[in-house]
What does this fold into?
Amino acid sequence: MEPAEKIPKPTLARLQEHFDHLVPRNLFLVKQNTFPNRVYRIPGSSAVKDDVFVAFKIIKEGEQYICEYLLDARGYTEHRRHNIYTDQTELLENFEGQFGNSEFEDEDIDYEEHKRILKHNTAIRKLLIKKGFLRK
It folds into this structure.
């Protein structure tokens, strides 16, 4: 079996810089021994511990590295895809009705809308579990 190819250090540094803009006072989310196609679940640094969590996976597409990740900051989550080479980020499928999870209180929505949001969030949770970003 051939050993897995490590992601180049300059690529990891660019990704770390991207995360530094998202997570204040973060301490090295991206380690030097980071491999493609593996999920890494990292809590924020001691300064923001328990408030921030990032789960990410780096995928190589052609000659470029793409990072998909789930950022959870105090119950507000965003599922994103970041092209490390071009520094472009796009939102992927996300929960609706945040803060927290699929359960929320909003008296302005009707029952059908509430059920639609619950169904949507259940599907998103399953997707994020399948990707390895959330645990059951």
User: Anything to note?
Assistant: Residues 15 and 84 are 6 Å apart (CA to CA). The chain has a mean pLDDT of 83.
